[in-house]
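Section 3.1: Structural characterization of target chains.
Under the original work plan, the team committed to producing a structural model for every single-chain target entering the pipeline before any wet-lab resources were allocated. The record below documents one such target. The sequence was received from the expression subgroup and is listed exactly as submitted; it comprises 236 residues.
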Amino acid sequence: MIIRHDRRDRECLVDPCKWPAITTFFHGHGAASLIAPTWLLTAAHVARSLQDGRPFSVELAEKRYAIARVILHPGYDSSWEEADEDEVGDSVDLALVELAEPVVGVEPYGLYTSSDEVGQECLLLGAGQYGDGLRGVRGSDHQLRRVTNVVDEADNYWLKFRFDAPPDGTPLEGVCGGGDSGGPAFIQANGKLLLAGISSWQRQGGKLLGLYGCIEHYTRVSCFLDWIRDMCDDRR
């Protein structure tokens, strides 16, 4: 995660043991969140790499679970990944990963179901690259970090977060670095953290990744609740 330059990196480090329902793929390059005992929610551009036939598995709460199947949202168009950021079309960058057996001892995250995300502060987590808004990416150590940001805009596909330089922004203002794709954006409601967004891509405006002024895009979970629930209820 990329944080504002007037904060110390250690302020955003968190203990992964306290976030057992978040896991990573490919040694930290890409993340997913447990939303049901046998289901992970992630980004389609991360999950499609799991479809090459190899016997992938993930670790949750210090136990490994085999992946049984991967389901990409039918609205996902892989060609958008190669497009210029000003020409990115609408694509549903969302996927479900089914595990071969239920995860035990870990409470799945609930989904955010309201459409009032704009103006709300979100908690973003990831174990990808780290850095700050002045210099951008500084390195990658696969440690789990947290930042916060406020949803500036939402449409039928995305939650959008602008990376504001201080004194604007939240006290722990930040956006994603490389490897954070598929990770969660949480909104707190009724004392619980609910999954509102899935990390997808960043509009950099011709600058380096993670500099002030970039616009972070997360797939908007509330727009795809029916698909998520239908797939998770499918026992075929």
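The first helix runs from residue 44 to 47.
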